[in-house]
Amino acid sequence: MSSGSCNHIVQVADLKYSCVCEAGRFDYDVGTEQLSATCTMCTHPITSHSSVSTLAKADCVDVPDPLVSLRSDTVCALWKQLQGVRVIHVRGTPTSGKSTIAKLLHEHILLNSSYPAYLFSWKEDYFTMNRPYNDILNIKVTKRERDWRDYECVLLIDEAQLSYNCDTLWNDFIKFQASGRITGPYIILFSSYGSPSPTPAVGPPGSAPVQLRASQRVSVRPLAENNQSVFLYFTRAEYDDVLQRPFLLAKDLRDYIWELSAGHPGAVRAIIKSLLEAREIRPFRKQGLYINLANAADYLHSQDFYKCLLTGSEAYKRSLPRKNDLQNSPRLIKFIQKVLATGQSEDLLEECEDLAGCYKKGWLQAELTSEGKTVYVFPTLLHQR
């Protein structure tokens, strides 16, 4: 039988975290004589799992997700950088940590500054009529401002790529604030795609596009000439902090997962959840033993591992092509095979329809080479496999 998520509290030193098991599994039916049954996924008792109607549910405790890092150093550095440059554009493929960073930064600003801070995401219908930026922001924030360029606040805008075609927002508002102004709102935009060059969005004909300095751009990895401590993927310290919680993983296995995931938050989460379900790993978890690379190698190279990634993590799947996408487009398959063979695409976005589709859906990440050329790569080795 199966159940809902596990409410068991895992304690590591002085910190407490909720178990990562989202759906308990048990080898036999629930009965009053089976209260000692343990979950085959996480090894915690059946009484700690929700949605088991014949049993009393465990008390819920408000504890942090064990696979989410609070990323205090990154958040502090990002806020300091935003205060220095007024506007920052953050780019990252799906599940690369944009929304999590946005929420953590919002909380940090509210706790550590006197600025009003507004976190929200766009819907495309806000821009169908290309309303003036004041109307768009007044509607979204439900606040009446005559001119948002004069309002001392912080705007944290998720899904900002949906606004790229809104000329009034980018050219009359964001460009104005990004041009060295020392008053008015701080603006940080989180986008699933966008050019890594100084021009994230192309303006209307005859208008100079928004130009962002290197210090106004944040990507999944450190950018040249940018603050090297601010990027979307986990730092190694953040990664190690996350991996010490749900399992006892030996250093060689942590190093292997680091190389495979590059610190991509969604990939790290998917790998750990896959290991949680692996029968080969279960005896080590149950006995509280360290798991090294030799213990996990066969599973991590098996079809079961990749099948679990594709079926068990809804968030991670958003960063991969869907089966229907591939079945309906043989040309897309050939394009992806070419990128797999070469490791990157150097095609021009406006000249390659398949590249544009992969890019806008977050399957490929745009990056700048040392020569300033834009190339398109898979987010991690795991995605490439």
Strand order of the largest sheet: 4-5-6-3-7
> Which geometry do the CA atoms define?
globular
Instruction: Report the biggest beta sheet as strand number plus sense, adding barrel if it closes.
Output: 5 strands, parallel
Rg: 23 Å
Specify the structural class. Answer: alpha/beta
Please give the alpha-carbon distance between the first and last residues. Answer: 33 Å
How many DSSP helices?
15
Q: Mean pLDDT, nearest integer?
A: 81
Helices and strands, in order, run as EEHEHEHEHEEHHHHHHHHHHEEH
Low-confidence stretches: 28-33, 52-64
- Tell me the total number of β-strands: 9
The share of residues in extended strands comes to 5-15%
| Helix content percent band | 25-40%
Task: Describe what you observe in this structure.
This protein is α/β, with parallel strands linked by helices and 385 residues long. It is built from 15 helices and nine strands. The strands form three sheets. It has a five-stranded parallel sheet with strand order 4-5-6-3-7.
